[in-house]
Structure formats: structure tokens, C-alpha cells
Design goal:
Layout (H helix, E strand, L loop, with lengths): L1 E7 L5 E8 L2 E17 L2 E16 L5 H12 L11 E11 L5 E9 L2 E14 L2 E11 L21 E20 L3
Antiparallel strand pairs: 1-3, 1-9, 2-3, 2-9, 3-4, 4-5, 5-6, 6-7, 7-8, 8-9
Length: 184
């Protein structure tokens, strides 16, 4: 049985985030710190992604002072508590290729030390020594203790309400770092 390990090339991989509120949305990026994917007999069988929460950036706010204030708020305990939790992680527990050729990755997502099951449908391509993976993950932030201005926990928020779901658009490039052939 042939197993190939693909290490994430962080400089060629990114995560775009979008958070919505009653009056609009904010968006930005967050970096991948490290990770890898495993292919066995040409099929994706596992992997993990470590996200660097300290790298969160806001792209839609041009004023430097307002941007810095918002970034500080996202770093605070109201949101991601990055001093206590400088990383988040997704650990794949199952990978199944759908009839449409895309993969359904099931796994455990940990944010702020809180772990919940998560699913990601992703386009995965492996050509030569390069793997690409892209997909969108929609998460309920309140499951991870991020309750700031959530209608589930606070009343009469009016137009200051922040929706619970946020989206992560994931684009990963990884390189083949090893191939093992195991005899059964």
C-alpha cells in the first residue's frame, strides 16, 4: 500500500474569513501555520491544518486606527483570545470522495480550546508532487465560546447584532514530502 504525505506550503496557502452583522459584513485573512495531508493508494485519507490565530487581518477597513482597534477586539477574549490560544486546528477523522469528485472531510475543529465536529466539502487535486485543496467552511462561532453580540445570548441588540455563522474560504497548496510503500 502506497502512502504519500503532502506538507502544506504556507506561503502558497490562505484562508479568507467573512463575518456578517445586521448592517453589513467584515472580511479578512488568517494564515495557516502548518499542516499535512495523507494520500493512500491515490485517495485522500487524512490530514490536519494548524491555523495561526495571531495572524488575523481585516481587509475591509482602510483607516489604520479603526483597523487596529478592530484587530485588537478580534484578538481579545470577546472573540479569539489569541494570547491564550495562538492556534486553532482541524484534524481530519474521515475523508470520502463523493460521486461529483469532491471530498467530504469530516473532522474535529478546535478553536479557543473547544473542539466540535466539522465537515468541509473540498475540491482536491493531486498532480505530480503538488496537492491543491479548496473549500468553504461555515461555522457557528457560539459553539466555540465566541458570544459577543450574539442574539442567542443578548437581547435588544438591534443593528449591533453579529450573526453567529462565519465563513472560511480555504485554499491550500501542499508538496509531496514522502512516499512510503507498506507491504501487507
Amino acid at each position: 500500500m502506497e502512502t504519500t504525505t503532502f506538507e502544506i506550503v504556507t506561503a502558497k496557502s490562505n484562508i479568507d474569513w467573512t463575518g456578517r452583522k445586521v448592517t453589513g459584513a467584515h472580511n479578512g485573512t488568517i494564515n495557516i501555520k502548518e499542516g499535512r495531508f495523507l494520500f493512500t493508494e491515490g485517495q485522500l485519507t487524512g490530514g490536519n491544518v494548524i491555523i495561526d490565530t495571531t495572524s488575523i487581518k481585516i481587509l475591509d477597513i482602510a483607516d489604520p486606527d479603526t483597523n487596529a482597534q478592530f484587530a485588537g477586539h478580534l484578538a481579545s477574549d470577546d472573540f479569539f483570545s489569541i494570547e491564550k490560544f495562538p492556534t486553532a486546528a482541524f484534524e481530519t477523522t474521515a475523508a470520502k470522495q463523493n460521486p461529483n469528485g469532491r471530498y467530504l472531510l469530516e473532522g474535529n475543529l478546535t478553536i479557543k480550546g473547544i473542539t466540535h465536529p466539522a465537515k468541509l466539502e473540498a475540491e482536491v487535486n493531486s498532480t505530480g508532487g503538488t496537492l491543491t485543496l479548496s473549500g468553504k467552511l461555515t461555522l457557528d462561532r457560539t459553539l466555540y465560546g465566541i458570544k459577543f453580540r450574539s442574539g442567542n445570548f443578548f437581547k435588544d441588540l438591534g443593528d449591533t447584532l453579529i450573526y453567529n455563522d462565519f465563513e472560511l474560504d480555504i485554499d491550500i497548496t501542499a508538496k509531496n514530502t514522502s512516499t512510503e510503500i507498506l507491504n501487507n
